[in-house]
């Protein structure tokens, strides 16, 4: 059967609305992962001895889950990026014609290696308790869905970047051209120091142009509030004694401020630098 061509186009507003909705998924993902203590055997290769598999229990679960999800068509959607793109099986389902909104160079941008490392080195220790309750498979499953939500959010920078470019090409084009053409860079370098400084600044200028500090401040405040609302104990009793949250709201805002927003912006810059190739 024939599928309709998807005409959906992203705008800066619609992309922002999606980022707002994705906050819910990320915060619930944090709450779900925080149900379990660290459960370090999940990440320790010497714990598992799975026949014909080298790696941790988490690696095992992620590789096999991504393979089945790839077959089911998950990665046909340009909003999705696998953690282990090597050797993924092809989709076995009809290909939905997602709108070709992004420049083809977008497909080359996948920073999941960095996200993976960041998640285990920096993020997990911020919001899970130490300890071991034996729920390693459940732990790995919650890690994967949270990692996928974080990855989708950060790589959404491609869509935000493209929407910004389309809304103001005359603003972005000179900054992109200044950076990506080595010849241009080289000839400018031979000029005065001032010109040189301008070129060196161009990645910074691009970053500056796509930055909206007031939007970032709202994001950071909103995720803290959402963590309070989503993570509170709901009781039918009148007086709940002492409010405890399922995940620390200030950790959620810190996580956004320190990692998720900066990485989203890096993806925007990376995408835009390749936008005119
Ligand atoms: O809303 C935007 O304009 C975005 O690019 C998204 C985002 C974010 O990561 O939340 C990143 C950069 C902007 O400074 C503001 C917010």
TrEMBL record:
What UniProt keywords apply to this chain's record, in alphabetical order? Amino-acid biosynthesis, Aromatic amino acid biosynthesis, Cytoplasm, Isomerase, Signal
Q: Gene3D superfamilies per the record?
A: Chorismate mutase, AroQ class superfamily, eukaryotic
Q: What is its EC number?
A: 5.4.99.5
> GO biological process: any one?
aromatic amino acid family biosynthetic process
Q: Where in the cell is it found?
A: Cytoplasm
Write one Gene Ontology MF term.
Answer: protein homodimerization activity
| Catalytic activity annotation | chorismate = prephenate
Instruction: List the InterPro entries hit by this protein, alphabetically.
Output: Chorismate_II_sf (IPR036263), Chorismate_mutase_AroQ_euk (IPR008238), CM_AroQ_sf_eucaryotic (IPR037039), CM_II_prokaryot (IPR002701)
Under the cellular component aspect of Gene Ontology, which terms does the record hold? Answer: cytoplasm
Q: Where is the Chorismate mutase domain?
A: 136-268
Which pathway is recorded for this entry?
Metabolic intermediate biosynthesis; prephenate biosynthesis; prephenate from chorismate: step 1/1
Q: Does the keyword Cytoplasm apply?
A: yes
Q: Name the PANTHER family for this protein.
A: CHORISMATE MUTASE
What's the protein called, per UniProt? Chorismate mutase
């Amino acid at each position: 059967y024939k599928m309709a061509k998807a005409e959906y186009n992203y705008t800066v507003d619609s992309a922002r609305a999606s980022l707002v909705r994705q906050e819910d998924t990320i915060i619930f993902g944090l709450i779900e992962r925080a149900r379990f203590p660290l459960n370090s055997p999940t990440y320790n290769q010497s714990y598992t001895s799975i026949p014909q598999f080298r790696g941790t229990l988490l690696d095992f679960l992620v590789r096999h889950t991504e393979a089945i999800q790839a077959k089911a068509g998950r990665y046909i959607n340009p909003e999705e990026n696998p953690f282990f793109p090597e050797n993924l099986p092809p989709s076995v389902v009809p290909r939905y014609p997602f709108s070709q909104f992004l420049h083809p160079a977008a497909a080359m941008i996948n920073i999941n290696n960095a996200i993976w490392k960041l998640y285990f080195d920096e993020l997990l220790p911020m919001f899970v308790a130490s300890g071991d309750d034996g729920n390693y498979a459940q732990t790995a499953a919650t890690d994967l869905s949270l990692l996928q939500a974080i990855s989708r959010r950060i790589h959404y920078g491609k869509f935000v970047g493209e929407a910004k470019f389309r809304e103001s090409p005359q603003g972005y084009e000179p900054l992109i051209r200044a950076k990506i053409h080595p010849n241009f860079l080289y000839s400018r370098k031979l000029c005065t120091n001032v010109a040189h400084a301008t070129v060196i600044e161009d990645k910074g200028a691009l970053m500056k142009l796509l930055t909206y500090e007031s939007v970032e401040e709202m994001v950071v405040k909103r995720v803290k509030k959402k963590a309070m609302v989503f993570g509170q104990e709901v009781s039918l009793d009148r007086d709940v004694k002492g409010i405890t949250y399922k995940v620390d709201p200030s950790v959620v805002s810190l996580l956004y401020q320190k990692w998720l927003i900066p990485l989203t912006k890096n993806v925007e810059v990376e995408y835009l630098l390749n936008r005119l190739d």
